[in-house]
Amino acid sequence: MSQKKNVTEILHHLGEEEFPFGAVSPPLFQTSIFAFPTFEDFRRALGDETHNCLYTRGNNPTVNLLESKIAALEHGERAKLVSSGAAAISASVLAFLKTGDHVVMVRDAYSWAKTLLEKYLARFGVEYTYVSGTDEAEIAAAIRPNTKIIYLESPTTFTFLLQDLKAVAALARKHGIKTVIDNTWATPIYQNPLDYGVDLVVHSGTKYFGGHSDLVAGVIVGNTADIEHIFATEFLNIGTVPDPFMAWLMLRGLRTLQVRMRTHYANALRVIDYLAQHPKVEEIYYPFYAKHPQYELAKAQMRGGSGLFSLKLATRNEARVAAFTNQLRFFKRAVSWGGYESLVFPYAVGHPDAPDHLISVVRFHIGLEEPELLIESLETALKAI
């Protein structure tokens, strides 16, 4: 692993020693190609695109600066920026699989991670097994001789189930299996899976890294060998290119990542404290809610939480869930999360045939607004149930 640096040093200083003209903001290299002074320099770059800026489909100085900061934040050796979170998941998984291999994945993982297995890799003879992830014995039982990847998401981002990262990583190493985890929810501000022995960390940079709901990106972090393998196979060949301007926007977003995460966390706890006492709320799904069944594990492997949680309303009537949602002020009805704004996403919106026990599950993202405003909005909306 790379030498660990202070978060402030990474966000505000790492890689910024020699900006031209004494610029404070990182330069934007909005260029598709790079020229070379000599034949020999040109040949050298063509022969080693992994370590040279030749064509922005491979490397770009703005992109590389962002990658160095995210790698340091995650205590990894290298990072690779890609065009979306789904691209990060796909590249990190595809790079280590072939026909006949097997994947173990947590059942409540991001839907596009599951789609990768069910709709894409299944076409090429890759098998998979879903597990809850909360029981190490269940994961061990799912491992086969041809298992090559264990895919984790801790916590999951609708039901907020955790995996014991240290235990799962040790189990995987014992069997020579690669581990990949989606760490978007906690961010490296609050969780560093590589420290527990996980091999690769993926993020949707669209969310907290960007922080302003104005970009789409993904990131993969790991050791140098794994990242260079992904670069040479899935990244260059498939072309999940990160745009330099998108990288520049994310560099801007990173400046405030630590401050924003503290506010998201504090606001979420304040709102959850209110909701937990309300008679029309049956259950709260949040790892740092004291009644979460894995609360102690959350405290052991994370330093804090984000603004995303779910709750179960005291109704099984979709019309009432819809009325509650429509009454909410200061909450936008939208997919995704991780920006400055508060959001609401009822499970039933995307699942018209949801079973009764899921009809009333609603996911919230608590943004940077004053929590009192959000609580006032929730109080009014809960009267609709």
From TrEMBL:
PANTHER family to which the protein is assigned, alphabetical: CYSTATHIONINE GAMMA-LYASE, TRANS-SULFURATION ENZYME FAMILY MEMBER
Entry's EC annotation: 4.4.1.2
Family under the similarity heading: Belongs to the trans-sulfuration enzymes family.
Reported cofactor(s): pyridoxal 5'-phosphate
InterPro entries from the UniProt entry: Cys/Met-Metab_PyrdxlP-dep_enz (IPR000277), Cys_met_metab_PP (IPR054542), PyrdxlP-dep_Trfase (IPR015424), PyrdxlP-dep_Trfase_major (IPR015421), PyrdxlP-dep_Trfase_small (IPR015422), Trans-sulfuration_enzyme-like (IPR053676)
Keywords in alphabetical order: Pyridoxal phosphate
GO cellular component, one term: cytoplasm
Enzyme type, top EC level: lyase
Molecular function GO labels: homocysteine desulfhydrase activity; methionine gamma-lyase activity; pyridoxal phosphate binding
Gene3D superfamilies cross-referenced by the UniProt entry: Aspartate Aminotransferase, domain 1 (3.90.1150.10), Type I PLP-dependent aspartate aminotransferase-like (Major domain) (3.40.640.10)
Catalytic activity: L-homocysteine + H2O = 2-oxobutanoate + hydrogen sulfide + NH4(+) + H(+); L-methionine + H2O = methanethiol + 2-oxobutanoate + NH4(+)
Protein name: homocysteine desulfhydrase
GO biological process: transsulfuration
Residue positions, PTM N6-(pyridoxal phosphate)lysine: 207
